[in-house]
């Protein structure tokens, strides 16, 4: 099992760079960030981080092909790969539906899966060959070329998926893996892995060779209650992007969560947090002491075949930035990175 740090690049950049450097020193596999307008630019951040780290891999999880042209994502990845000495990788999706709505894009009319599949083909070709001529439904090029060339023989490209089953199967069949966000139950991961495996086998690939990542809301610390309260502060914000079928696979009735989603959509984050019960927060996060977090991963996630934990760490600064709440006893990002490395990762062969 690999462990990675998923950051929201909303901290002072000097702090983010130090956290990435610490994750590198502690043996984390990768640092990912969301490629979204809401946050600071991950490409500039990771370009700076490349020169301050030695082993950790860097890239977007996810980058939206509806907003960012795929050849430009490929160009940025190849450039980051050269800067980092071959440590770049990318995860693609159609985009965060809430963000698309703010751009006045109706995601349902974009044919999201078809667009992502074509974008993946475009990027794979552009990265591998340095040039592309393509006449597609969404993207077309005549002899486009680039001098941005990756160091790796095959720079990994993966898909982000939440709904399924077709998106999971496409990830298994066409890409180097799948990052599945915001699931926490054995049922949800069995479902995802079953369809990732079906897609891989259709392409004649060993599904176990793929990167199958669990992108989870994560908060830990010496005080279980404090860590769970930090997670509760953010669960509703994240859960509002979960499709109804995914909520059900995670043991949550969509009707139960609707008041939370409605409050957040109306901009009343305080009311959304108030309506997020500890029971819902516990179902939709990995939170508590390091031992409690390890137990949940061992019980509900790892047995499905997931081989990569991607921890979207929630701390005092993030909660305060998003919600205005102050949780002074919550462990900061660097403390949580150390706790994961020292008390969670060794239980999964990461000694």
Keywords:
single chain; 351 residues; alpha/beta; eight-stranded parallel barrel; two-stranded antiparallel ribbon; 15 helices; 11 strands
Structure description:
This protein has 15 helices and eleven strands. The chain has 351 residues and is of the alpha/beta class. Strand 2 (30-33), helix 2 and strand 3 form a beta-alpha-beta unit. Helix 6 crosses helix 7.
Draw up the topology in text.
Layout: E1 2-7, H1 13-26, E2 30-33, H2 42-50, E3 57-64, H3 70-84, E4 90-93, H4 97-102, H5 112-129, E5 131-135, E6 140-145, E7 157-161, H6 166-174, E8 177-181, H7 186-202, E9 211-220, H8 224-239, H9 244-249, H10 254-265, H11 269-275, H12 278-283, E10 286-288, H13 290-301, E11 308-313, H14 316-323, H15 333-344
Parallel strand pairs: 1-2, 1-11, 2-3, 3-4, 4-7, 7-8, 8-9, 9-10, 9-11
Antiparallel strand pairs: 5-6
Helix pairs in contact: 1-2, 1-15, 2-3, 3-5, 5-6, 6-7, 10-11, 13-15
Instruction: Summarize the amount of helix as a percent range.
Output: 40-55%
Taking the sheet with the most strands, its summary is: 8 strands, parallel, barrel
H/E order of the elements?
A: EHEHEHEHHEEEHEHEHHHHHEHEHH
- Rg: 19 Å
Query: Could you name the ranges where pLDDT drops below 50 across 5 or more consecutive residues?
Result: none
Count of helical stretches: 15
Strand content: 15-25%
Total beta strand runs: 11
The span between the termini is 11 Å
Content-based structural category? alpha/beta
The gist of it:
The protein has helices at residues 13-26, 42-50, 70-84, 97-102, 112-129, 166-174, 186-202, 224-239, 244-249, 254-265, 269-275, 278-283, 290-301, 316-323, 333-344; strands at residues 2-7, 30-33, 57-64, 90-93, 131-135, 140-145, 157-161, 177-181, 211-220, 286-288, 308-313. By secondary structure, the protein is an alpha/beta fold.
